[in-house]
Automatic annotation (TrEMBL):
It holds the Pfam family Flavin_Reduct. The keyword Oxidoreductase applies. Belongs to the non-flavoprotein flavin reductase family. Coiled coil: none annotated. It comes from Gordonia pseudamarae. The lineage of its organism: Bacteria, Bacillati, Actinomycetota, Actinomycetes, Mycobacteriales. Keywords: Oxidoreductase. Gene3D superfamilies: Electron Transport, Fmn-binding Protein, Chain A (2.30.110.10). This is Flavin reductase. Residues 23-166 form the Flavin reductase like domain.
Length: 179
């Protein structure tokens, strides 16, 4: 009979530094979530974005419970979700910064219903709130996709190891170099 070795390097999940380090091992999508409320552009960046379902078409993001932006966006009929392109890390930081500077020097796109999008994004999803689920110090927000536009040729921005990264095609990594 063979014995499976024990993993002895596990740390308690209550150690927030260790937990952050573990979470940083997994890349996540980075998006802007924006809408026009009256004459004001309201938006934020979110780095815990993922696809959920094809039927109905759902995506999710996680919002800190301390957010002052999400409570404003939650009540609109449509929000725009822009999947940042690989070259938009500065724009992502801007949308994560002070609210009054988030749209400085940006000419966003929008729908008649008020969804707002970042130009040049890899994908643009016009969404409505489907559900919110309390999840510790965050809220898991499920959004139903109503309309969309996407360009798979545009490399997305991802958040990994506490920083922004772009993806590299496996074919490009494995390709022989030189003659």
């Amino acid at each position: 009979m063979t014995h499976t070795p024990y993993l002895t390097t596990l740390s308690p999940a209550a150690d927030s530094d260790v937990l952050r380090r573990a979470f940083s091992c997994f890349p996540s999508g980075v998006v802007a979530v924006c809408a026009r409320i009256g004459d004001e552009l309201v938006g934020m960046a979110a780095s815990a974005f993922t696809t959920v379902s094809l039927e109905p078409p759902l995506v999710s993001l996680c919002v800190q419970n301390t957010s002052t932006t999400w409570p404003r966006l939650r009540g609109v009929s449509e929000v725009g979700v822009s999947v940042f392109a690989g070259d938009q890390s500065a724009l992502c930081r801007q949308l994560a910064g002070p609210a009054h500077l988030r749209f400085a020097a940006i000419e966003p796109l929008h729908t008649e219903a008020g969804a707002v999008f970042v130009p040049g994004a890899a994908a643009s999803l016009s969404c409505s709130l489907y559900n919110e689920i309390p999840a510790g110090d965050h809220t898991l927000v499920l959004l139903r996709i109503n309309q969309l536009d996407a360009d798979p040729a545009v490399e997305p921005l991802v958040f990994h190891a506490s920083g922004f990264r772009t993806l590299v095609s496996r074919a490009a990594v494995d390709a022989p170099s030189g003659p």
